[in-house]
Design a protein that fits this description.
The complex is a heterodimer of chains A (280) and B (315). Chain A is built from eight helices and ten strands. Chain A is of the alpha/beta class. In chain A, helix 4 packs parallel to helix 5. In chain B, strands 1, 2, 3, 4, 5, 6, 7 and 8 form an eight-stranded mixed β-sheet that branches. The longest helix of chain B is centred in the first third of the chain and has 20 residues, at 7-26. Chain B is globular. The chains are: A alpha/beta (280), B alpha/beta (315). At the A-B interface, strand 4, helix 4, helix 5 and helix 6 of A face helix 7, helix 8, helix 9, helix 10 and helix 11 of B.
């Protein structure tokens, strides 16, 4: 005979009466630190205990960098077309539509002009939540036009990269965005307008092999994954495990492809100081 | 070696040879039958090769007998001096280059090189260049610019090499730099996809005043196999992937991502390398003639404008 007998059957509380902490109030970093979202936000989305840089998007970067979060967005309404009528398990326009709905963004990059510590700057920032920050015609075109804006008004250009690479669903068109953005950067370079490329977690593929590596200054956030080929592909190619820290920002700095690594909490000040030094 | 869709043709050709041999052995007149069979072979070839699927063209682009970069270079030049090394780390054997002379015209040739047998394939790393290869290519382009020699690149790669050392030495940076530097080269640049044109590895030597594709080559952001692996999580959908990517010469010309197609002999470049090379040479001369009439500034600005116009968006 059981020494304990259930009086009621199972759990009787209806789902909508359950008391729950709302989602997204707390954030747990990979090393296990738990931090309140409000505190995270006040700390440039960096965990104060372990300096972990949380992946953020254009909204947060604009908030961090533009004075009083004031800026004028460029080409905000540009959306993807479907030039190749691409279909895999779902038609490409359906994927776009779903991503727009899910993220509230129109594509994987936003560009804007505004003031950073009193000086004008054009910033284009990628959003990883939109199809892995992949680069199709919209990303290429918006970056190209942001550079045009820099050229026309002689304003420094900051590119914040965060991308898995080219967007397969635009095939040849995606590939040529690498050429297009590089062409515009060649013009910017000739006009001697400063271009700072900030590589954030993750920056890989066609983005690394075009505008992200072409800065007058290439800088990165700590711990960001930066590479051309993805780690899985390399592991399969060489048939060995990859060394610890391979393709981290620190590794890329060590091999000479970055000028420095910057803590996001100091990003605005450091960018301002750097631009001041070349404008003196 | 032949591909599956080549087999009926190869069989008929074997039959024809057999018929000719028997006739000469026995002294029988089979002229009529031979003519009939020859006609049949030509008809079958036309039928097969004008209706190739995209995937079949991908297979042709990788045909084991397909001519590679150096085959074409030696065929179209009277003299060729290969130049080696990136002056920093190594001499990448997957990317070759050098100065050649074509009917009195000096040209800087650059291109990915594949190997014909196992040993060569290893040495050439299957045509997958390391950063050293892209830097070697850029060094040779700058040399060509200095001495006012036009540049011809031959693109034939399954991609830039995704290796450990390639990452350490900055594969991304090497390709990115080439894209930017090639935009402002003062000399004429003609790029020809002769086989496989996969992704950034192809584009890394693919910025030109004219970008042309051989009839049975392909050019896209990813290979059909890898596209299938990512979208369907298996390699089995490579044929669908090839169709979805629209990666053939005709497709790419249709959306203005390349400037022209170079015709191959019926049956593919490997069936008649000499005439394939002759056609390439003819096209190079025709394009060079047009490009050399322009000033360096005109060429650079129209090169930049061309690439900047690529892309379709809705606003």
């Amino acid at each position: 005979m059981a020494w304990f007998k259930r009086q009621d059957k199972g759990i009787l509380t209806p789902t909508d009466e359950k008391r729950e902490a709302p989602d997204g109030l707390w954030y747990k970093t990979p090393s296990g630190n738990i931090i309140h979202i409000r505190e995270l936000k006040n700390n440039a989305y960096v965990c104060p205990d372990d300096d972990f840089h949380v992946r953020i998007g254009s909204k947060e970067y604009f908030e961090i960098l533009f004075d009083n979060n004031k800026f004028q967005e460029l080409d905000a309404n540009m959306k993807s077309a479907d030039p190749l009528k691409f279909t895999d398990s779902a038609p490409y326009p359906k994927r776009i539509e779903a991503s727009i709905k899910k993220t509230g963004l129109n594509d994987a990059v936003r560009s804007a002009v505004g003031k950073m510590n009193g000086s004008e700057i054009v910033i284009a920032c990628m959003d990883f939540t939109f199809i892995g920050g992949s680069m199709g015609s919209v990303v290429g075109e918006k970056i190209a036009r942001a550079i045009d804006h820099s050229l026309k008004h002689k304003i420094p250009f900051l590119m914040i990269s965060k991308s898995g690479g080219a967007r397969m669903m635009e095939a040849g068109f995606s590939l040529m965005q690498m050429a297009k953005t590089s062409a515009k950067l060649a013009l910017l370079s000739e006009a001697k307008i400063p271009y700072i490329s900030l590589l954030t977690d993750p920056t890989t593929g066609g983005v690394t092999a075009s505008f992200a590596m072409l800065g007058d200054f290439n800088i990165a956030e700590p711990g960001a994954l930066i590479g051309f080929a993805g780690p899985r592909v390399i592991r399969e190619t060489i048939g060995k495990d990859l060394p610890k820290g391979f393709q981290s920002a620190e590794f890329v700095l060590d091999h000479g492809f970055l000028d420095f690594i910057v803590d996001r909490r100091n990003l605005k000040t450091k960018l301002t100081n750097l631009l001041k030094l070349i404008n003196n | 070696m032949h591909l599956e869709f080549e087999k009926p043709i190869v069989d008929l050709e074997a039959k024809l040879n057999e018929m000719k041999r028997l006739a000469s052995d026995n002294g029988v007149d089979v002229t009529d039958a031979v003519h009939k069979l020859e006609d049949k072979i030509i008809r079958l070839k036309e039928e097969t090769f004008t209706n190739l699927t995209r995937w079949q063209r991908v297979q042709l682009s990788r045909h084991p007998d397909r001519p590679y970069t150096l085959d074409y270079i030696y065929e179209i030049t009277n003299e060729f001096i290969e130049l080696h090394g990136d002056r920093a780390v190594s001499d990448d054997k997957a990317m070759i280059g050098g100065l050649g002379e074509m009917d009195g015209q000096s040209v800087m040739f650059i291109g990915q090189q594949k190997g014909r047998n196992t040993k060569q394939r290893q040495m050439r790393n299957f045509g997958m260049a390391n950063p050293d290869g892209y830097r070697k290519a850029l060094r040779l382009m700058k040399t060509a610019e200095k001495f006012n020699v036009p540049i011809i690149t031959f693109i034939d790669t399954p991609g830039a090499f995704p290796g450990l050392e390639a990452e350490e030495r900055g594969q991304g940076e090497a390709i990115a730099r080439n894209l930017k530097e090639m935009m402002t080269l003062k000399v004429p640049v003609i790029c020809i996809v002769i086989g496989e044109g996969a992704s950034g590895g192809a584009l890394g030597i693919g910025i030109g005043d004219r970008v042309l594709m051989l009839e049975n080559s392909w050019y896209s952001v990813i290979s059909p196999e890898n596209c299938s692996a990512i979208l369907w999580r298996t390699w089995d959908y490579k044929e669908q992937a090839a169709d979805a990517l629209k990666l053939t010469a005709k497709d790419m010309l249709g959306v203005n991502l390349v400037d022209g197609i170079i015709k191959e002999p019926l049956g593919g470049a490997h069936t008649d390398m000499k005439s394939a090379a002759a056609e390439i040479k003819k096209v190079i001369f025709a394009e060079l003639k047009k490009l050399q009439k322009m000033s360096a500034e005109e060429r650079i600005s129209s090169r930049i404008d061309k690439f900047c116009a690529m892309g379709v968006v809705s606003e």
